[in-house]
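Worked example

This section walks through a single chain of length 375. The input is the sequence exactly as stored; nothing has been trimmed or padded.
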Amino acid sequence: MAGIYIHIPFCKKACHYCNFHFSVTRKQMPEMVKAICKEAMLRSSYLSEKVETVYFGGGTPSLSTRYEVRSMIDTLRELFDVDEGAEITLEANPDDITEDSLTGWKEAGITRLSIGVQSFFEEDLQWMNRAHTAMQAVQSIEMAKQKGFTNITIDLIYGTPYLTDEKWEQNIDTALSLHIPHLSCYALTVEPKTALAKMIETHRSENVDADKQARHFALLTKALQAKGFEHYEISNFALPGFRSRHNSSYWQGKPYLGLGPSAHSFNGRSRQWNVANNNLYLKSIAGNIIPFEEEALTGTQQLNEYIMTALRTAEGISILKISAGWGSEKTVLLMDAAQKHINSGKLLHANNILCLSEDGKFFADGIASDLFQLS
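Given that input, the structure is written out below as tokens.
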């Protein structure tokens, strides 16, 4: 089974923390949709497996019209073996969600909505430079449910400089009161060359506080697990049956095709990434050229990829899989590197599985780096 990711590189405005590829000039949207459909045709041989998930990300995919969404989905179904019961996710901002848009997305084939809430507090949204209001955040979720969308996830950001523990708990409580079956919650990171990085550098904003982020993470996991949510990946929580099938495919190492500027693809042996330039992408596709770079993965790189993704999941790293796929020598090196984290209680080792403890989850990236193998 495989997945397809479509990158829609347009937004109404730039969020202060965002470092994804996008443009706030949307006049190229119709041309971009046609180019993405053409790229799908040019790359129709990339995937030989049945496609079980499609994900519209960005940028802001909800800025595209219902007809543009339908045309892209119809194109994928014509060119690829898309499963009848495929999970088809659309990222949507609350201010783009209306009764008409919801009806159009459902008719186009969208089965899952990912709503970019980030916070239910007005002052936080203004600080982030989001386009929606706190009221729109709540109304958009309620409207989506009324229109028959049952598979809904929202994004929330914690650890921002002015988000107190009490306000973070209120954000969690609000999400739970709306009966959303999936939440993706991310610690604020300060990415280079973003507006947020400049604000901190010029002392117009406080920097992030790692201790606060750790507290917020602990509050989050305790509250959601008490309500029956599975903490199935570091940043993702789902009620039983509502895990993101698309994101899970990334963590399981399944192949996927990325369409659109800056989109990435992976076939198990190599990574590819399209140029992050709208004009160059459009010009190249018009000339029947796919503007991508490629990196062939060595065996060690494939192993490190597995370590990085598997460690973040509830299933953890399978020692037997590493032994079968990469040999006993790599297994011994992995266990030697893991021992200090096992001794500290951050890693758990049982039944040939290495997984993060509750304390270890906040240190996932550092632990993964320690487990990586150099050759």
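What to look for: The longest helix spans residues 210-226.
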